[in-house]
Amino acid sequence: MTTSNDYLDADNAVYKTLLESTKAIPWKIDWSTLQFAYIGPQIEQLLGWSQASWVTVEDWASRMHPEDRAWVVDYCVSQSKSGTDHEADYRALTKNGEYVWIRDVVHVVRNKQGEVEALIGFMFDITERKNTEQKLIVLQKELEELSFKDALTGVYNRRMFDSVMEVEWANAKRNHQPLSLLMLDIDYFKQYNDFYGHIHGDECLKRVAKELSKVATRSRDFFARFGGEEFIIVLPETDEKAAKMIAERCRNLIFKAQIPHEKSLVSQMLTVSIGVSTIIPIHSDEAINFIAAVDRQLYQAKEKGRNRIA
């Protein structure tokens, strides 16, 4: 005669078979003792630790990446005490010393009195998903960096200059410190392109960008291609005298590069004109007006014969 217990045992066997045939790893912890009442045999295939080695929650916590352990344990304990179902992602230590990303999904079981009785959950291997997420983050960062780089020369572009200028302008205004700006233009670059061709013109821009990059040596010094044959250098906490010295260094670097320019009206070698300005901005000053002032200085340098600093 078949009894109800026989049916129950059969059902339990079916459920156990189903649970242990999935990739998800089932487990149960008794809340009063904080010991594992059960963990699926799949745990050994995933992490290498035997099924029998999972005795208490300490075994779970100790096999967690040190950077994850404190917050995951604190979070899971607090959520369990409050009777709230939860989940957590963390790196679990394998027996051979490597780490696997795990997602633990936890259900809190209460007794008739509403007290926490047990925790039942599933562990999922999400390593592949995490690796994909990390690759996407790296890709996104690379794309973001590319959006701030000039495609031709590889230096920062106008978009990045606008962002940096906004920050440094605010800093200079708040701290009452000088901010200097250099705007540089390659002399007679149209004639250079017409005579040597646009391919050589592009190579010339790359060479100039490489030479001028040597000037921005401090951590907050900033150099960018402003547009066309124009470049710009932001010099935080730099007074007028120091800014002029840096401008002179820029001019000398380009001249020493000895880039031939037969169609220049000022030299047989490539030269640059530079506008320089320094300000300690006050509340009523605006960055756009300061940039325009530097542009006017550059125009004056070109009007006065080029290959010079204004």
* Biggest sheet overview: 5 strands, antiparallel
Approximately how much beta-strand content do the residues carry? 15-25%
Rg, Cα atoms, Å: 34 Å
Number of strands: 9
Architecture overview:
With 310 residues, this protein is α+β, with helices and mostly antiparallel strands. The chain contains ten helices and nine strands. It has helices spanning 4-20, 42-47, 57-62, 66-81, 127-147, 158-175, 189-196, 198-212, 240-256, 287-303; strands spanning 25-30, 35-39, 86-93, 99-110, 116-125, 179-186, 222-227, 230-236, 272-279. The strands form two sheets. It has a five-stranded antiparallel sheet, with helices on both faces. Strands 7-8-6-9 form a four-stranded antiparallel sheet, sandwiched between helices. A hairpin with a 2-residue loop joins strand 7 and strand 8 (230-236). Helix 7 (189-196) crosses helix 8 (198-212). The chain is elongated and about 90 Å long.
